[in-house]
Structures are given as C-alpha cells and as structure tokens.
Design a protein that fits this description.
By secondary structure, the chain is α/β, with parallel strands linked by helices. It has 2 domains: 128 residues, Alpha-Beta Complex (Aspartate Aminotransferase, domain 1); 241 residues, Aspartate Aminotransferase, domain 2. A 4-stranded mixed β-sheet has the order 1-2-3-15. The protein has a 4-stranded parallel β-sheet with strand order 6-5-7-10, sandwiched between helices. It has a 4-stranded antiparallel β-sheet with strand order 13-14-17-16, with helices on one face. A hairpin with a 5-residue loop joins strand 8 and strand 9. Helix 11 packs parallel to helix 13. The chain is globular, with a radius of gyration of 21 Å. It starts with 14 loop residues before the first strand and ends with a helix.
C-alpha cells in the first residue's frame, strides 16, 4: 500500500540511480532517459561538477534567511543579468512560484505608478504556467481548473496564433501579455520569431508589459540561453526554473529596472528562495550551460537529431504527423493518441513523456552524446515500424 496521494498517474517502475543520460531501475534495467525530470536535469543525472558543488557547499552553509545578504545569490544574479536582458533577479524555488511572482511583479508595477486597476494578464488559452491556484487560471484550461473554484480573477485568454482575438482582448485594464515562447505541455508549439516581435511592438504601443515564460524552454534548451533570443525581442519579465538547477529546486524572476522599482521590501518573499546551497548549484550550472561552445554543441546536435526525426517521419507518413520544436525541446506529433507509442518506446528502454495534441515530448539532457541520440533514433524508427 502506498501512503502517497494519488494525484499522479505513476508508471509501475522506480529507479535506483542515474548517470548521465541513463536511469537504472530496481529490476536492473537500463533506460535512456529523454524526460530528464521534464527538462529539469539539464546536465543529466549525477553530473560530477554538481556533486562536487553540493558536497562543498553542504559542508559550509545550507540555509540562511533572506533577512541577510547571501553572496552565492548575488553572484548568480549578476551572471544572469550579464548574460540576459535583465537588470534584476528575484529567486524562488520552482517554475510555478516564478510565474506567480511574475504576475505579482506586473501588477505591482502598475499599482506603483498609480494605475491600480490595470491588473489583467492576457494568456494563451490552454497554455501552462504551473499548478498553483493563480497559475492554473492563467493557463485557461478547463481540465486544470475543474473543482478548484471560485475562479481566480484577473486573467483573460486568446487562442494561439489568433492576433485579432488578442488585440480585441486588450483593454485599459490590461497589465501584461504572458506567453511561453515554446508551449511545452501545450504540444511543443513554437511561437514564430516574427510573432514575438509583433507582441513586443503591441505591448509598446499599448504601454503594457511582456512576460515570456521560459521555465521549460529556457536555460539553453533551444541552443540559445533563452529561446526568445533568436527573435531579438526584449521582454519586461521572464520567469525561469527547471534547467537552472540541473535537478536542484531553483526558480527565479528576471526583470527590467523599470518593473523592479515597484518591488520594495515586504512586497514579496520566499523562505527557501535563494538559499546558499541552491545558489551554489545554480552558479555551477550557469557556468556550464551559458558557455558559447556548449550552446553551439546543442544547436549542432539538435539539428542533426531533428533532421533524422524528419527522415523517420517521411518513412512513416501515416504514423507521424509532424516534428515540432527547437533545440532539445522536441515533440513528435502523431495522428493517433500517443499512449501506446510511449509505452512501446519504454519497452525498448527509451523514456519519453506526453504533451497535448498527441505529442510525444523528447527532452534529452543538454550534454547528450551523439551515440545516445542515434540509439534513440533507432528505437523511435523501430516503434514506428511495429505500429505501421
């Protein structure tokens, strides 16, 4: 009997340990892990430099209140600001915390300039911004909000790709537009660069803020440190998490000087956010994933992988409908429900995870080896053949 609440539909398998791209189960089977905690283990399992960092920091200091200066956090914040658009950083513990904080920052900014009724956040319908109460209503999914009323107000929604609908929804109460540059749970749908540029122009014209949720698609997963960098837009607020901790819980909100000015002492806090142990890990991850050679390797290897996935798609045109994504945030969209496909991949020792619109989500570690990508391609091709 399990004493855990049944809010997860867990597969009947557990793992003893992980190393690099692989997980090893208690029944002594080796699995190629292309889930990696859902884009969390950016450097794979048990990376030696992360182990070294945790050992070193854990002997010194794990936690101290944010009532005091935390040098490790100051260092990581500086690295993030020097690498990105941001002027300031506010640390959290998870992606949901980060998106909730991003919403608070946007609303607080307009409050601070005397526009307290300007507090509506526009989001894509059926997007994903976390599972806290405000975040599920930001996502606009009936499935996610069912049974959790009363409704959290302050959000409005538009259909993905429907620019006319978006423009009509903007009112004098709109504070910000919040989107994922690549929708993860929503089916690995990439917002085109020209569209991100138009969103920025629209926000400038309407004098509202642009929040780009990079929790899943950020931290070098696409071959750029942020996925929106390719479009050359400059957002106002960006929540991050997942990959920045390499498996250790870290979240953050990056923001411009303009909006940060509203966040005065007492406006937000997080007991564990920015603790020394998490910050030490984040600094090590940041040093690796922001390296230019590392980023180029992601671009080169992901291009190779995507190219070969498209070859498989053309080989099995009745099985695979589309190959989606950028970098190592990849979706194989099937014509039919993906449950059997994912199970067969698992039977052949390749772990993947589902997303909306019949998508099989593929999230390798960013330091994946070419030989491991080839192994995954071989398994995917084999499963397509079995189902053809």
């Amino acid at each position: 009997m399990s004493y855990l609440v049944k809010n997860y539909n867990r597969k009947k398998i557990s793992f003893k340990y992980g190393k690099g791209s692989y997980l090893y189960s208690y029944d002594n089977k080796k699995y190629l892990d292309f889930v990696q905690g859902i884009a969390v283990n950016s450097l794979g399992h048990a990376h030696p430099l992360l182990i070294k960092t945790i050992r070193k920091q854990s002997k010194k200091l794990w936690h101290v209140s944010n009532a005091f200066l935390i040098p490790e956090g100051e260092t990581l914040a500086k690295k993030l600001c020097q690498k990105t658009f941001a002027d300031y950083v506010m640390f959290q513990n998870s992606g949901a915390e980060a998106t909730e904080a991003a919403i608070k920052v946007a609303r607080r900014y307009f409050y601070s300039i005397g526009k307290k009724n300007k507090n509506i956040i526009l989001c894509v319908k059926n997007s994903f911004h976390g599972r806290t109460l405000a975040a599920i209503y930001a996502s606009g999914s009936k499935k996610m909000t069912e049974g959790f009323g009363p409704k959290v107000s302050g959000f409005n929604h538009f259909t993905f790709g429907d620019h006319k609908s978006l423009k009509k929804k903007i009112t004098n109460r709109t504070a910000a537009i919040m989107v994922e540059p690549i929708m993860g749970e929503g089916g690995i749908k990439v917002i085109p660069d020209w569209c991100l540029k138009e969103l920025r122009e629209l926000c400038n014209k309407k004098k509202i803020l642009l929040i780009l949720d990079e929790v899943q698609c950020g931290i070098s997963r696409t071959g750029n440190f942020f996925s929106f960098e390719k479009s050359k837009v400059k957002p106002d607020i960006v929540p991050i998490a997942k990959g920045i901790g390499g498996g250790f819980p870290i979240g953050a909100v990056l923001m411009s000087k303009k909006v940060a000015s509203a966040m005065t002492p007492g406006t937000h806090g997080s007991t564990f956010g920015g603790n020394p142990l998490a910050m030490a890990v984040g600094n090590t991850v940041m040093d690796i994933v922001s390296n230019k050679k590392f980023l180029k390797s992601i671009r080169d290897l992901s291009e190779y992988f995507l190219s070969n996935l498209n070859i498989i798609k053309h080989r099995y045109p009745t099985i695979i409908k589309n190959i989606r994504g950028r970098g190592f945030l990849i979706g194989i969209q099937l014509y039919k429900d993906q449950t059997i496909f994912i199970k067969k991949l698992m039977d052949h020792r390749l772990l993947t995870i589902r997303a909306s619109e019949n998508v099989v989500r593929i999230l390798p570690p960013l330091n994946v080896k070419k030989i491991e990508l080839n192994k995954a391609l071989k398994i995917i091709n084999r499963v397509c053949g079995e189902l053809n």
